[in-house]
Automatic annotation (TrEMBL):
The keyword Electron transport does not apply. This is Cysteine desulfurase. Belongs to the class-V pyridoxal-phosphate-dependent aminotransferase family. Csd subfamily. One of its GO terms (molecular function) is pyridoxal phosphate binding. It comes from Arthrobacter alpinus. The lineage of its organism: Bacteria, Bacillati, Actinomycetota, Actinomycetes, Micrococcales. It catalyses: (sulfur carrier)-H + L-cysteine = (sulfur carrier)-SH + L-alanine.
Length: 440
């Protein structure tokens, strides 16, 4: 799919979102209307899990009420209807990221997608494999490159691949402001680099990485490029072809969809050449007692019964995001992110992780409160009805690099208002006095 055929580019530019628009959007999210601990809920944990609009919940319910059946396995009417829903959802989600239908594989989540890749590459590294699969093999002398800011889901699978195959693992270091050390990066890409897997947006600092530049560096040495788009697909207009990446993963539950559904994008010629990871029913052409032959992608990587209703709901979520406008969402969240950073910077004893005010970032802010543990900060905010994330956010190496064990993270989405951000900032300002901590 060409850049010009991205869903957001099929329509004229939409006006920027305002608080009035967001208040209308909130009517589609019933959970946001409740009180928590006697206070109106301020949900600032969408970086972990987003809330779901009515249309998404109805899409899943409608499937079970009207079309529930196994897909690709029956000739009866319900089976055909279920298969149509399943494959229509694939087409919708693929178009959302600028991919073709056969380039999108359903997974349980992004973690499952990354493990699929790591184990498939591992399968290409042992025993007899078809000639076309050898391009994925890694072994002693080869290197897998990641970054110091990765979520554990984009680190541990590669550690395990290297452990199994004897390949080496290297990482691009992070600067004090949370951005990648691009000078170091340029020296780390060598002819030994076989795989480069990195996050588009940091789930801790909100840093938006220069995907095109990093991808060019990787391709210049012949490496495969994998993008963790968990924190970008829900918030940015994502076009995998324009970015020139080879693979990408994202999770539905972070982009208005249910849990248990995610997707892996891969260039068609690569997916068809990769060895399968999970094997069993629905992904084979013929089976004898001695061997099996496998279908092309995407079915090649979709063994067993799939998350059919969740796929339908993810398609509904994608339609909701597209109708709202991804560029509008990105601009609104950027505004909220800058508002959070500026407000936190103004509170004594607060250290914000990542770039300073004015530098582009996602709509999230992780921070340290001097003298108060992150878990205590989170509990205090919860008492005020404000939901945030506390801990290391599955990014222990990054926290260690920044001199912390844990932080508090507020992450906004299209349904958050400026008033909610201000309520959050006012509550954070009360944290240190509440715990009796004084001083700058």
């Amino acid at each position: 799919m060409s850049v010009s055929s991205h869903p957001d580019r099929l329509i004229a530019p939409m006006p920027a979102l305002t608080d009035t628009d967001v208040l209308r959007i909130r009517n589609d999210f019933p959970i946001l209307a409740q009180d928590v601990n006697g206070q109106p809920l301020v949900y600032l944990d969408s970086g972990a899990t987003s809330q779901k609009p009515i249309s998404v919940m109805e899409a899943e319910q409608e499937f079970y009420e009207q079309r529930n059946s196994a897909v690709h396995r029956g000739a009866h009417t319900l089976a055909v209807a279920a298969t149509d829903v399943f494959e229509d959802a694939r087409a919708t989600v693929a178009a959302f990221i600028g991919a073709q239908e056969n380039e999108l594989i359903w997974t349980a989540n992004a973690t499952a997608g990354l493990n699929l890749l790591a184990y498939s590459f591992g399968n290409a590294s042992i025993g007899e494999v078809p000639p076309e699969a050898r391009q994925f093999a890694v072994g002693p002398g080869d290197e897998v490159l990641v970054t110091e800011m990765e979520h554990h889901a984009n680190l541990v699978p590669w550690q395990e691949l290297c452990r199994r195959t004897g390949a080496g693992l290297k990482f691009i270091p992070v600067m004090d402001d949370g951005t990648l050390d691009m000078e170091a990066a340029s020296a780390l890409f060598t002819q030994r680099t076989k795989v480069f897997s990195f996050t588009h947006v940091s789930n801790v600092t909100g840093v938006i990485n220069p995907v095109v530049e990093l991808t060019r560096m990787a391709h210049d040495v012949g490496a495969l490029v994998i993008l963790d788009a968990c924190q970008s697909a829900p918030h940015l207009a994502l076009d995998v072809k324009a970015l020139d990446i080879d693979f990408a993963v994202f999770s539905g539950h972070k982009m208005l969809a249910p849990t248990g559904i995610g997707a892996l994008f891969g260039r068609a010629e690569l997916l068809d050449a990769m060895p399968p990871f999970l094997t069993g029913g629905s992904m084979i052409t013929t089976v004898t007692m001695e061997k099996a032959r496998y279908l092309p992608a995407p079915q090649r990587f979709e063994a067993g019964t799939q998350a059919i209703s969740q796929a339908a709901a993810l398609a509904a979520a994608v339609n909701y995001l597209t109708e709202t406008g991804m560029e509008r969402i990105h601009q609104w969240e950027s505004l909220l992110g800058q508002r959070m950073v500026a407000g936190l910077d103004a509170i004594p004893g607060i250290r914000v992780l990542g770039p300073p005010v004015g530098i582009p970032r996602a709509g999230l802010a992780a921070f340290e409160v001097d003298g108060v543990h992150a878990h205590d900060v989170g509990q205090y905010l919860d008492s005020a009805g404000i939901a945030v994330r506390v801990g290391h956010h599955c990014a222990q190496p990054l926290h260690r690099r920044l001199g912390l064990n844990a932080s508090t993270r507020a992450s906004a989405y299209l349904y958050n208002t400026t008033a909610e951000v201000d309520a959050f900032l006012a509550a954070v300002a009360r944290v240190r006095p509440y715990f009796g901590v004084t001083g700058a």
